[in-house]
Amino acid sequence: MTGFIVLLICFGASVIGAVCGIGGGVIIKPLLDAVGIYDAVTISFLSGCTVLSMSTYSVICSKLGGNSKINGKTGFPLAVGAAVGGMAGKEILTGIKTVCQSSDRIGRIQAVCLLFVTIGTLVYTLLKKHIATKHIDNVLASGAIGAGLGLLSAFLGIGGGPLNLVVLYYFFSMGTKEAAENSLYIIFFSQLMSLFASIAGKNVPPFAAAILLGMIAGGILGGICGRAWNKRIREKTVERLFIGCMAVIILINLYNIMRAG
């Protein structure tokens, strides 16, 4: 029964993640924390693997379909920076685990950080019509921004999520669907290197293989459905779905903080 619930969570989150470009991890991580099937570090790892599977499918399909909205001049340095940041974020999480020696405390730290990130993202999204955006085209600046995104996403175990979109809106003046696709591209690289860092550092937590396979299956199936849905809906609808998700995620994180406290 637990496996089926996890599969449904990963499928639903990945559908929304593929449509909005938030990767799904920002939904999967707090929901699995709330369910409590594993400790915070294990959930971060499993969530990252799920997001990696979904983003891999989405990026490959986009490239093969010839309809990619990824801007190589901007997207590549962002992705390289995210890969470096992803490895650093995983190391920070491992270090905090060593110091804290408490899964509940780690989960609470992650939930508080994610809560503030989500609130900030929601506020920006609601006010973005009144905020002047920038158009950065400097490779080093793009790489540094990508590194920050990768570090935070790997530490939180969310893949990248809503923060990616806000950064792409503000610093690169991207539209909703363009930002969604570039966000998944960044998520792919940051989670790939985060996984590599866990394997190389022998920091892969114990878990049931069936749970991981179910999560990956849910991630890929959600990516398939999400991509198909994204092509049929307007940007305005994507934005409304995104805002609704942020509101739900805020509530889930508040619950997790109170539960861990």
Tally of helical segments: 10
The major pleated sheet works out as:
none
- The overall pLDDT average reads 81
How do the SSEs run, as a string of H and E?
Answer: HHHHHHHHHH
Could you tell me how far the N terminus lies from the C terminus, measured between alpha carbons in angstroms? 28 Å
Count of distinct structural domains: 1
Low-confidence residue ranges: none
Query: What helical percentage do the residues reach?
Result: over 70%
Strand content: under 5%
Shape: globular
Rg calc: 17 Å
Structural class estimated from helices and strands: mainly alpha
Number of strands: 0
What would you say about this model in short?
This protein has 261 residues and is mainly alpha-helical. It has helices spanning 2-20, 25-35, 40-65, 72-100, 103-127, 139-156, 161-172, 176-200, 209-230, 235-260.
Describe what this molecule looks like in 3D:
- The model has no long low-confidence stretch (mean pLDDT 81).
- This protein has one domain (2-260).
- Helix 1 (2-20) runs antiparallel to helix 2 and helix 3 (40-65) crosses helix 9.
- It contains ten helices and no strands.
- It is globular and about 45 Å long.
- Helix content is 82%, strand content 0%.
- It is an all-alpha fold.
